[in-house]
Design brief:
This protein is an alpha/beta fold. It contains 8 helices and 10 strands. The chain has helices spanning about 5-15, 50-70, 80-90, 135-145, 160-170, 180-190, 195-205, 210, and strands at about 20-25, 30, 35, 40, 75, 95-100, 110-115, 120-130, 150-160, 175-180. It has a 6-stranded mixed beta sheet, with helices on both faces. A two-stranded antiparallel sheet has the order 1-4. Strands 2-3 form a two-stranded antiparallel ribbon. Helix 5 links the parallel strand 9 and strand 10. The protein starts with a helix and ends with a helix.
Length: about 220
């Protein structure tokens, strides 16, 4: 985590305001994994809001400078990490590349896109959202296989699952996010986005998201 409560709360406020994050404890969403969830997050919506897009870009840039120091390249994770990463690379004046979820099935069959001859080998990966960390770490592995030194990963938001923390630790990849589930629920509860009973439901989901839907 970035561990800056002011930034965590501000990002949480923005995401709720524009409905990039929706909270529906009484009418849960179904994720692609099959999990039932009272929360849905689509940070691509931030790109349509210039003020929020600028704030996120600036804070990701500052996070990278503070946590990772000098790097030679920014890498986005397809698909939602691509625009966020490109904005940050522009801010830092660095080359930008992105990592596909799987190699192209035509042409060069590339997994990593961009002019790799222009990049420094120390890279920071940009994501929009961390759930289990699986797709993010696939990108990290692909970059390492290509000879890059992955300094770490930065993202807008994390659900804060223990499995993600464990996965990043096992992969020896530090990661930081601008905001997180705990900060979001705190802000939502204090600002009447949800009721006190909803807060309890959302906390219970966070404790065991895979099993939560079975209790409904």
């Amino acid at each position: 985590m970035f561990n800056n409560s002011e930034i965590e709360q501000q990002v949480a406020e923005f995401l709720l305001q524009i409905k990039a994050i929706k909270l529906q404890p009484a009418n849960p969403f179904t994720w692609a994994s099959g999990w039932k969830s009272p929360i849905y997050c689509d940070n691509r919506i931030t790109l349509s809001h210039p003020t929020i897009r600028t704030y996120i870009r600036q804070q990701l840039t500052l996070l990278i400078q503070e946590k990772f120091g000098s790097v030679g390249c920014i890498a986005g994770v397809a698909t939602a990490g691509i625009p966020q990463g490109a904005l940050v690379a522009q801010d830092l004046g660095l080359p930008f590349i992105y990592v596909r979820s799987k190699p192209k099935d035509h042409g060069t069959g590339s997994l990593i896109e961009g002019d790799l001859s222009l990049t420094g080998k120390r890279v920071v990966v940009i994501e929009d959202l961390i759930s289990t960390g699986k797709s993010s770490l696939q990108a990290v592995e692909a970059l390492r296989d290509a000879g890059y030194d992955v300094a770490g990963l930065a993202a807008i938001f994390s659900y804060g699952f223990d499995v993600a923390t464990d996965n990043f630790k096992q992969a020896n990849c530090p990661f930081f996010t601008l905001s997180n589930y705990g900060a979001l629920i705190k802000y939502a509860g204090e600002n009447q986005y949800i009721s006190d009973s909803d807060v309890d439901v959302l906390k219970k989901w966070r404790e065991d998201p895979a099993a939560w839907g079975k209790w409904l």
